[in-house]
Design brief:
heterodimer, A: alpha/beta, TIM Barrel, 8-stranded parallel barrel, B: 239 residues, mainly alpha, Outer Surface Protein A, domain 3, 3-stranded antiparallel β-sheet, 5 strands
């Protein structure tokens, strides 16, 4: 895995990457957006993929769904990863479909012992099909459908039982801590840092005093940078990626934020 | 996992407004909005003309109806194809040109997402043989849904037979669609590698009772243009 800072690749600025001197050390791509890509972006995407280290971060796996894994989707995903020689693949500790109905949104899982076992089996199946290990991201959530344990215990148990690595999303921890009233630093203290593969940082929107939403549509807030510093000071030395999915600014602007992340994280 | 699945099912039903949560939560509205706006964004982009023709409320109502049926495809952009099939089957809009309009709009989406063959530019010659490129599409519509003014002045266009050629234009990086005559359509769909264009034209001369010169005067500039845009192709270099 890469040892520096990365940036989520987006179509909004993909054509500007080579127009500037400053470039990220690596890019993260969402395979669902590139397995079948708009013809306008194919050439530049293929140039970037050949020039940079790439990590794939999926959306549609639905690891916690009751539906059997979609073999056609996984087959296409493997072809994509193999074709572009992408070794690292991550997804979300959530579900986005049930009974074959797709929601295209990351939904919160019941945090139960059965779910830990179930996800562990599914991780094994995914890893066998893809021929790669998988990292799972702690999701943001606004509702807890059912829980037999604390979220930190759930995350640690899934990682321990499945052998998957953790993609620690620092913004998600912050947003969840605000919405559900817990201390984000205490939360982080309970996470098994040994399991971390890499980290995400992103912006969120403050809807009102009770609700923050993980939009990835804003610049990263100071409180979240502070939380990243806290993680770093706790001894975590893993790659970090800046995500921006909505209201994506131009490349120059996002690279200013990237530079700030580099400064904090160096 | 029965408990977990029941919890998940109830949650999804609540998001799609089919069932209430046992414990009401203000967060439910967040998920309802997140999911709804995800679908809205995709469908607005895929069907801009259709969206202009129905009210905002009706469009919203159709999305919620579709959510109850459920989307199947894990790839988000392709869900617009499922929405199209749903709308045609649902048929509660009573729009006579609905199927044509949706087919037209979704074909444009599909063609933007298509992986096009590389090709080497060459000069069209009558002695060469050509076939219709696998990268282009020809569709016949009963309504002029391809016309730029169709969505603002539907009444202006009569029901008929409109044959439309769709292709990707490399220079402008856009999908181009233009109406073609039934003759050009037939021509494009019947040329084969086994026969040079010159031989093909000779056959048509006999069939239509026109002179070769008359036919070439009409066809030559069109065929030269088709070759330059790779609408007709000599060979597949690589995919």
């Amino acid at each position: 895995m890469h040892d520096k800072c990365g940036l989520g690749l987006r179509t909004e600025f993909i054509h500007d990457v080579y127009k500037h001197d400053l470039k990220p050390s690596w890019f993260e791509v969402t395979p669902e957006n590139w397995m079948y890509m708009n013809v306008k972006h194919r050439k530049i995407f293929e140039r970037i993929v050949s020039d940079f280290e790439i990590v794939a971060h999926g959306l549609s796996l639905s690891i916690g769904s009751n539906t059997p894994l979609d073999k056609n989707y996984l087959k296409d995903l493997k072809i994509f990863l193999d074709d572009y020689e992408i070794e690292h693949y991550s997804e979300h500790l959530s579900f986005c479909s049930l009974d074959n109905k797709q929601m295209y949104e990351l939904l919160p899982l019941p945090m139960t012992y059965n779910m830990v076992e179930y996800i562990s089996d599914r991780v094994d199946e995914v890893q066998n099909i893809l021929g790669r290990s998988i990292a799972l991201e702690n999701a943001s959530y606004y509702y807890v459908p059912y829980a037999e344990m604390e979220e930190t215990d759930f995350i640690n148990a899934v990682m321990q039982k499945s052998g998957a690595k953790l993609l620690l999303d620092v913004n998600n921890v912050f947003v969840n801590s605000h919405n559900h009233g817990f201390n984000p630093k205490e939360f982080l203290d309970k996470i098994d840092y040994e399991n971390i593969a890499y980290m995400h940082i992103a912006g969120h929107i403050e809807v009102n005093e009770n609700l923050y939403i993980d939009t990835h549509g804003e610049a990263v807030k100071d409180e979240v940078w502070d939380l990243l510093t806290y993680v770093k000071n706790a001894g975590v030395d893993k790659p970090i990626l800046l995500e921006r999915d909505n209201d994506v600014p131009n490349y120059e602007t996002i690279m200013k934020e990237y530079k700030y992340m580099q400064k904090i994280y160096s | 996992m029965k408990l977990e699945q029941a919890v998940q099912k109830r949650f999804i039903n609540a998001i799609t407004k089919q069932e209430e949560l046992l414990t009401p939560s203000g967060a439910l509205q967040v998920y309802q909005d997140l999911v709804y706006y995800r679908f809205l964004e995709v469908f607005e982009k895929a069907y801009p003309r259709f969206k202009k023709m129905v009210s905002k409320e009706k469009f919203s109502e159709l999305i919620y109806k579709f959510l109850k049926v459920g989307a199947k495809d894990p790839i988000l952009w392709r869900v617009s194809g499922e929405f199209k099939e749903f709308l045609i089957k649902e048929n509660d809009l009573k729009i006579e040109f609905l199927e044509d309009l949706l087919e037209f709009e979704f074909l444009e989406v599909e063609m933007y997402m298509h992986k096009y063959q590389e090709y080497k530019e060459d000069i069209f010659t009558l002695e060469s043989s050509y076939t219709l490129s696998a990268d282009v599409n020809i569709r016949t519509f009963s309504y002029a849904v391809h016309h730029p003014d169709f969505d603002t002045n539907t009444q202006k266009f009569e029901k008929g037979e409109y044959t439309v050629l769709f292709y990707y234009e490399r220079e402008t990086q856009s999908i181009v669609y233009e109406e073609i005559t039934p003759f050009i359509s037939m021509f494009l769909q019947t040329i084969t590698r086994e026969q040079s264009i010159s031989m093909f034209i000779d056959d048509r001369v006999k069939e239509y009772g026109v002179t070769r010169e008359e036919l070439l005067e009409v066809l030559l500039p069109i065929l030269e243009q088709f070759r330059s845009k790779n609408i007709i192709t000599t060979q597949t270099l690589h995919t």
